[in-house]
Amino acid sequence: MKYTVKDLQSDFPDDAACLQWLVEYLYPNGITCKTCGEVTQHYKIAGRKVYSCGHCGRHVSPTAGTIFHKSHTPLTLWFHAIYLMSTNKAGTSAKQIERELGVTYKTAWRMMHQIRKMMATPDDSLLAGEVEVDETYIHPNVYKRSSARRNYGRDARRKGEILFGIVQRGGGVRVWHVKTAGARILRPLIEANVKYGAVVHTDGWQAYRTLPRLGYDHRTTEHGIGEYVTADSYTQNIENVWSHFKRGIKGVYRHIGKEYIQAYANEYAWRYSNRKRANMFWALMCRLNK
Ligand SMILES: [Zn+2]
């Protein structure tokens, strides 16, 4: 069953409920006091997000090390923002968070970037089976008033910022904002993320030509370039990721600073990779301390 805003509000009616969940989640064995050196009974200090050791009085803050640390924004609003960003497939704008949560635009923007950090947690697992590899060009600054073509000219498709992505069919995707699409940049990313021997589908871009030598079963969608072409050699999945992300930039974010492209890409990649989970909100919440 879908986890709705109503469920969220009944699970977390107030900040005390949020904090209680946080304590239970972060300290499954109880809170260890750093002064006493052992697990001791702790008591919440009224009006503050702080607990105090019942033995020596030392304070401990359950939000330390999380994105909530030192924030004056109520935890209920943080949880609500995490809910919106984890479940809203098309992406959520800072304007929308501002409106729905009743915070300033600046606060909304800052919260969203903190939440994106949770979505960026590196994953060391290997992509395997059949993967699709592709690069694309985005124009993060030009959607506001005019089209990419007007700014970049007729050759707009091959200009702009470069994204490189690897998707495992039926699984997750990883995306990097890269400086060039040369083999020297793309090959290490493939070798670091894709299991040796995996089937790798690409287009005919020259950076992929050495994939068979690296131990991959390379299949390409363009005749005469790769090892061989088969009917199942397509890169539709990664292309879907690109078009979804580009729609988000265009329709939701409007304008993103070059320095934040990776953060926005991580957000989209995270949602794509977790799309099959029963509850996206909890999937993201359980990365709080990672
Ligand atoms: Zn103590």
Helix content: 25-40%
The distinct ligands, each listed once, are:
zinc ion
Question: For the largest beta sheet, what order do the strands appear in spatially?
Answer: 6-5-4-7-8
CATH architectural grouping of the largest domain: 2-Layer Sandwich
Order of helices and strands: HHEEEHHHEHEEHEEHHH
* Unreliable segments of 5+ consecutive residues: none
Average per-residue pLDDT, rounded, comes to 89
How many β-strands, per DSSP? Answer: 8
State the separation between the terminal residues, measured CA to CA. 27 Å
Q: Quickly name the level 1 CATH class of the largest domain.
A: Alpha Beta
What would you call the shape? elongated
Please give the count of helices. Answer: 10
Please describe the biggest sheet, giving its number of strands, its sense, and whether it closes into a barrel. 5 strands, mixed
Strand content is: 5-15%
Radius of gyration: 23 Å
The CATH topology of the largest domain, please?
Nucleotidyltransferase, domain 5
Structural class: alpha/beta
Count up the domains. Answer: 2
